[in-house]
Each structure stands twice: as structure tokens, then as C-alpha cells.
Specification:
This protein is 40% helix and 20% strand. It has helices at residues 13-25, 36-46, 62-70, 94-102, 115-130, 162-172, 181-189, 199-214; strands at residues 5-9, 29-33, 50-54, 84-88, 107-110, 136-139, 142-145, 150-153, 156-158, 179-180, 223-225, 229-231. The strands form three sheets. A five-stranded parallel beta sheet has the order 2-1-3-4-5, sandwiched between helices.
Length: 235
């Protein structure tokens, strides 16, 4: 089986070498870049399975590079949906994480972080993006097209950030099943333990608000089962 190709955009040679060495030992094929422009060129030329962007890069922020990836720039031929993980500077906080996720990035880690946690998050994202899937999922008036990442409630389109869409897809696997918080955090974010994070709850709340607005104000989707987790619909 071919190894997954990862693009690592990291300015610091020592950090780039450390991560590349361990990722290679874990079976990944690692492509290196030192700046955002170089990373974009490699994404177009090599079509990696996942992109790791250090923040900041010499020619811009990781979020700016991610925005260019998602924008389908004229004349560029790359996969705009390639998963992106931001590796932020020391001191990154919840606001930085939220801005990265809302800017189209799929995951976020602030330094210092354990290599094992980065590896777990990479593998969690690759599992989600490589698993065989039915292209369209329906739950009542809700329709999710995984191939195009299009979400509608009735005829109303719903625009979702990257992690909101991934959370919706996870819940849509079995719409009436209750998924535990631990499982959702592990599968969508790659977390190994629940801890004290509010990441899942904040994303679920935003996803519920958007689907409710598209559903004429009727709160039908993303049901919180207190003390356990979430399910997509009652049933």
C-alpha cells in the first residue's frame, strides 16, 4: 500500500527536520517547504494527502495560505479540499484556533505539542478523507453531498466551516445514533481524551444554529443528549 504524502511547510530547519524524520519513520512520505508560495507550488505539483502549515511563514500567515488553497485561484490546478493542519507559534490560544478553523483549516495545534498528538490528528483526518463513503446522505430535509461538500436543508444551501462539515458527516453516518463526545473528539479532531475542551460543544452549537436557520427556525438537527454526546436527529 502506498504511503500517504504529507506537505510540511516549516521555516525552522531544526523543527522541519525533527518532524520530517519522525513522520517518515511512521510511514509517511514527507515533502518539505520553507514558505507559503513554495507550499502552494508543491500542492499543485505533488497533490499531497494532507498539508501541515507552520505559522507564521516568511511570506504570510498559515491562514492566508489556507485561504488561497480554498479559493481555487484562476490558472491553478490543485485540490482545494486538501486537509490542512496549522502548527502555530508558542502562545497560540482559543481565539487563534477559532480563526484558523473558521478560515478553512481542518485542525490546529499550538506549540509546544507532543509529536504523538500531531500524529494522531493526522491519522484521524486521513481516515475520514480516505474511507469509502456514500456520496449523498439524507436526514429529513437535510441533504449532505460529501463529494462536493454541499449541504442543503430543503432548497436552502448551508455554508459550513471545515470542522462543522466534518462533524455533520460524522453524525450523518447514523443519524439517530448517539455519538459520545469522546468518539467525536477522537474522530473529528484527533483528540485522545475529552479533557476540559469546549471545542466540540462550540462547533455543535454553531452547526445547530446554521441548520436551524436554514430550516425556517425549527431546531430539528444536532441534538444534544446531556451527559453523553450528540446525534443528528431524534428518532
Amino acid at each position: 500500500m502506498a504511503s500517504n504524502a504529507l506537505l510540511l511547510a516549516e521555516t525552522e530547519p531544526e523543527e522541519r527536520g525533527f518532524l520530517a524524520r519522525h513522520l517518515t519513520s511512521d510511514g509517511f512520505h514527507v515533502l518539505g517547504a520553507e514558505a507559503g508560495v513554495e507550499a502552494l507550488e508543491l500542492v499543485e505539483r505533488a497533490n499531497p494527502d494532507l498539508v501541515l502549515l507552520a505559522n507564521p511563514l516568511p511570506d504570510g500567515s498559515a491562514v492566508e495560505v489556507c485561504a488561497r488553497l480554498r479559493a481555487r485561484e484562476p490558472g491553478r490546478n490543485w485540490n482545494p479540499d486538501v486537509p490542512v493542519i496549522v502548527l502555530d507559534r508558542p502562545g497560540g490560544d482559543a481565539i487563534d484556533s477559532t480563526r484558523a478553523l473558521e478560515g478553512g483549516c481542518d485542525d490546529y495545534l499550538a506549540r509546544p505539542f507532543a509529536y504523538e498528538e500531531l500524529r494522531a490528528r493526522i491519522r484521524a483526518i486521513l481516515r475520514r478523507t480516505s474511507r469509502p463513503e456514500h456520496e449523498r446522505v439524507h436526514a429529513g430535509a437535510l441533504a449532505v453531498d460529501r463529494a462536493t461538500r454541499r449541504v442543503t436543508v430543503g432548497d436552502v444551501p448551508v455554508t459550513l466551516a471545515g470542522k462543522e462539515f466534518e462533524l455533520l458527516v460524522a453524525l450523518a453516518e447514523d443519524p439517530t445514533r448517539v455519538f459520545s463526545k469522546e468518539r467525536l473528539l477522537r474522530e473529528v479532531w484527533g483528540f485522545r481524551s475529552l479533557g476540559r475542551t469546549r471545542t466540540l460543544d462550540s462547533h455543535a452549537s454553531r452547526l445547530r444554529r446554521k441548520l436551524t436557520a436554514a430550516n425556517g427556525g425549527v431546531p430539528e438537527f444536532v441534538v444534544n443528549v446531556w451527559g453523553v454526546g450528540y446525534k443528528l436527529v431524534d428518532g
